[in-house]
Structure formats: C-alpha cells, structure tokens
Amino acid sequence: MQVSDFHFDLPDELIARYPMAERTASRLLQLDGQTGALRHGQFVDVLDQLNPGDLLVFNDTRVVKARIFGEKASGGKLELLIERVLPAEAGNPGNEVVAHMKVSKKPLPGSVVHMAGGRQAGGFDAQLLGRWPTEDGPLFRFALHGPAGESPWELMDRHGHLPLPPYIERHQNTYHDPQSAKDRAEDSQRYQTVFARNPGAVAAPTAALHFDEGVLADLAARGIERASVTLHVGAGTFQPCKTENLAEHQMHSEWYEIPLATLAALERCRQRGGRVVAVGTTTVRTLESWAKTGQASGDTNIFITPGFAFQVVDVLITNFHLPKSTLMMLVSAFAGYAHIMGLYRHAIAQQYRFFSYGDAMLLERAPPVPAAGKNESNQALALTG
Fold it and tell me: Which of 55, 135, 226, 269 has a C-alpha 20 to 30 A away from that of 247?
C-alpha cells in the first residue's frame, strides 16, 4: 500500500481546537468489526459497550511542559521541544536531555543557548553536546544548567509550555495576551488525562481525555477491570510519512513499560474469556510491542499497517486521526481498510470533530484478512442507529 491510500479531505472547521465543556460530552462513533455497521452515540455510551470481565487498558503517561523558548548568544530566537530526559550515568549527572530544535541556523556543538531568559535572568542555559542517538541523528543532546542546579524536570515545569499539537494553534510565547493566559490555564487541565502520573510525554494519549472520574467509577461498578501501561508519546506522532512507499517509512521510537500487575491482569482477562480494550493507539502499540518482542519495557518503533497480526487487543477506543498519518494506518490495520475509510467519510459528512480535542470512535477488531488494497475503499458499509 501507498501513503496516498490513507488520504482524505478534511474541512478545517471540523478540527477541534478547543475541548468540549465536559470531558464526556463528545460523540462516539461505533464500528462493528464483523459487518462494518456504524452506530452513532455519545461517549458515555461506551459504558454499555463493555462487558463484565473485559479489561480496559490505559496509558498513564503525563504530558510535561517540554516546549521552551530561548535564544542563541547572537540573539537569534530558538525553540526546544524536549523529547526525553536521559538517565544519570557516567559522564552525565542527570542534567542531560534530547530535544528537537527549531532555529534558523543551528548552533555548533559546545555552544550555549539561553532558555527563558538564561541563567542570569531567572531562566537556564543549555549547552549543545551533539546530535542523538547517533552523530547524524534527528535529535539534539543538551546539558541543562539552572541557577540552583535544578533537574530538567524542575526546569521544564517552571519555564516550559505544554507542547500542544500544531493544529491547535496557540500563541504560547505571548504572556501579556489575556486570551493566551486563559488558553494556557484550560489546556494545562484538559490536555492531560485524569489519571496521568508518569511524566515524560510531549503529546497526550488523547483517547483517554474523554474519561472523567464519574465514568471510571461507573466502569468499576459494572465489574470492568482497569490496568495501565506507560508509553511516553513523542513528537514523532505528529510527523507525516516522508516516503510514498510504506515499507520505506522509518517509524519514530518511544519508550514504554508494562507493569507486572498489568501483565497479570491481561492473563486473568484471557482466562475468563474477556476482551482487552485498549484506550488509544499508544496502548495498542505498547501491548502489541510486548507481544511481538516479549519485552515488558524498552523502546519501540513498531509500525502497524494493514496485514498486521494483532495478538492482544480486541477493541480500540480512539480519536479521529490526521490524513496519511501512521495512526490512520494503525486503525486501518485494526478494523479493516475499507471499513475505516468509509467510517471517516461518514464522520466528515456527519460533522464529527477531529483530532486531539475531538470526538471518539469505538472499533472492534476485524477478522484477520490479507493486506488490504485501495480498491476495497469502494465497498458499501451498512449504517445503523
């Protein structure tokens, strides 16, 4: 298949740039994995689609304020998006990070840049050590130096901004604008799940943004078990495929961990005949990485496309994704290419809200089939409800 097979035209007005007043107020479009039938509803309807004995698995990563503005010694503006804090080891006392760097002319290794005003003005300095993970890698390795030896986590929390997706369009470097201040306050609460606890993501696991404490309590009361994994979502989740041939695409790498308690919950679910319900594509990538490698933690660059043999996940709750994105390919692999392309056409016609702050889908896994082709997109879909 080609990247262009996953294109669709999305009207700009369907991009959700602000959240709904309540987390659970979004709509829910359900897809029957066997027939392709669609059903409309509200997100709270998810309660009626899950059964006692099912296992709901969330990604408990926490989005950090990883976007930081600064300038070079010459005065030229730059922006860092810190992707990962490196563990302390020999030669690294714990102050090193790797980041994306947005700047007109990149500084040379050894250069010191001044972030949030620089160390002498209440911010901090960052020394460029080189590229990462290789000498010509896509990221940059920095050593951060705060005025009182603060950790990278402390510096980000004090001086950083939530790294919102580019389509949300916020002016985060405008402190005097009352609307910007209002947006920052709302985003700091709503672009975070209610159960986020492990800091390290630069993007939220957005399918889980729909869940509030009331829904979680109702799920528990209905006998639906919960478990968690951690995958620190990287900025690569927003990067488009740069090659037309899927086989040539280099997937970004992200760190994940599955606790022993979750592994035990997965086994209990299988023994009682329940379904594993993944909340979000990051949870799918985590669970299927473990199934593929046998590793409960580490880095994964798993690339899920049509024809992938799923081993763990039975049901997926997710949002609507960007055209030609790797997430479109993942949901097409999960629920069937023809079903997904038809679902997206229908969602656009029915004015569903797209992307991080948008509406949700509940997808049942399609029966295993050979890799789908573009000609499948013309198959008719049944519509109910």
Answer: 135
